[in-house]
Amino acid sequence: MRTLVLGGTGSIGSAVVRGLVAAGHEVCALARSPDSAEQVLDIGAEPVAGDLASPALWVGALAPELDAVVHAACSFDADMGALDTGLLDALLPALAATGRRPALVYTGGCWLWGPSPDRAIDEATPFDPLPAFAWMVPNLQRVLAAPGIRGAVVHPAMVHAESSGPLAAMAGQARAGRPVSVVGSETVLWPLVHADDLADLYLRVLADDGFTGQVIGVADEGVPVGDLARRAAGGAAPEVVSEDRVAAERGDWARGYARSQRMSGRFARERLGWQPRRSLAAAPAA
């Protein structure tokens, strides 16, 4: 397949690019600067000059060449909803116009559901999005309902990797000699998935021509953030910070770090044969 990855230098997108390249696919990724283009080349993809904020400048020329698109981009700013909507306004009709029913795999997330510490969220659980991400629900519904494409949505749990994501941030705080912080309470549960395991799920969705709809990617159903912080800090107690503080520092979207959830990956395992291999729940505390 020739696949375009949007967000190809991010935690999720770069893992997807590596997985697609390793599987022998032809991969391109959007790059809006020379530095981004160099990063895309470094992970094995072809850089395509373009900006998510100006899709009309690149979608029309690129779409006829594509068999699939993985949309794993988000700006995490006040305009992220409008930017995403504008992208879909251009991308959906351009893909449909190819007449080949290309796949579009959209990225949702765990914060489209409400707190659920006592019952694991699954694909049938009604949405209750964090207000900062409420725009994502109608957008993913557009993808699933769009004619002329094969729409699918992957909902990652909290994504971690060796050099990115919230667990890497905890490790960075510990290395710098600072207290490792958690938001809201040590008892908040985070569902977790490693970026490489998640990439394998995207590849399985892309490879299954009969799959449409939504699937959750989670390896660890729910791990207390206090345990994660202590592992990062060699057993030291974490610093608990308020939702308001983290929202003031990073934006309202960061209130999600205090959202206590369990999630189920049963459907991904049973329908797509997905087997995540990087579970943290069984690892001993530091």
Brief summary of the model shown:
By secondary structure, this protein is of the alpha/beta class. It has helices spanning 11-22, 34-42, 59-62, 80-96, 136-145, 166-175, 195-207, 225-232, 243-250, 266-272, and strands at 2-6, 26-31, 46-49, 68-71, 103-107, 116-121, 150-156, 158-160, 181-183, 189-194, 213-217, 220-224, 239-241, 261-263.
Topology:
Layout: E1 2-6, H1 11-22, E2 26-31, H2 34-42, E3 46-49, H3 59-62, E4 68-71, H4 80-96, E5 103-107, E6 116-121, H5 136-145, E7 150-156, E8 158-160, H6 166-175, E9 181-183, E10 189-194, H7 195-207, E11 213-217, E12 220-224, H8 225-232, E13 239-241, H9 243-250, E14 261-263, H10 266-272
Parallel strand pairs: 1-2, 1-4, 2-3, 4-5, 5-7, 6-14, 7-11, 8-10, 9-13
Antiparallel strand pairs: 10-12
Helix pairs in contact: 1-7, 4-5
Can you walk me through this structure?
The protein is α/β, with parallel strands linked by helices and 286 residues long. It has ten helices and 14 strands. The protein has helices at 11-22, 34-42, 59-62, 80-96, 136-145, 166-175, 195-207, 225-232, 243-250, 266-272; strands at residues 2-6, 26-31, 46-49, 68-71, 103-107, 116-121, 150-156, 158-160, 181-183, 189-194, 213-217, 220-224, 239-241, 261-263. The chain has a seven-stranded parallel beta sheet with strand order 3-2-1-4-5-7-11, with helices on both faces. The termini are far apart. The model is unreliable at 282-286 (pLDDT under 50).
